[in-house]
UniProtKB/TrEMBL annotation:
Transmembrane segments: none
CDD domains: SSB_OBF (cd04496)
Domain of life (superkingdom): Bacteria
A single BP term in Gene Ontology: DNA replication
Keywords: DNA-binding
Cited PANTHER family: SINGLE-STRANDED DNA-BINDING PROTEIN (PTHR10302), SINGLE-STRANDED DNA-BINDING PROTEIN, MITOCHONDRIAL (PTHR10302:SF0)
A molecular function GO annotation: single-stranded DNA binding
GO CC annotation terms, alphabetical: nucleoid
Pfam families assigned to the protein according to its UniProt record, in alphabetical order: SSB
Source species taxonomy: Bacteria, Pseudomonadati, Bacteroidota, Flavobacteriia, Flavobacteriales
Protein name from the UniProt record: Single-stranded DNA-binding protein
Subunit structure comment from the entry: Homotetramer.
Amino acid sequence: MSTIKNHVQLIGNVGQEPTITNLESGKKVARFSLATNEYYKDSKDEKQTDTNWHTIVAWGKTAEIVEKFVEKGKEVGIAGKLKTRTYTTDDGNQRYVTEVVADEILLLGSKGDK
């Protein structure tokens, strides 16, 4: 039962080119945004789209896969967990950020897709 605690699965499209950072420790981290869409019909029976944006963070081998194969517009599947962190802005305000830390990434779409 512990495997379903704090578990996130998303399928969506990459919203921007991933940012890759090589840390002094030798670790690699990748960050990118992912758009997920939900479709529904409104009261006038017209199709509507609700888009949600997620910040994805990948470390180590997963970050290397992101660096090699993930680009803006690509459809990907993500499995990971939610992580919330805090930081203080220059003017002293505390901010909270919730990100998806990706443990696995699945490259979707056809081989010919760019």
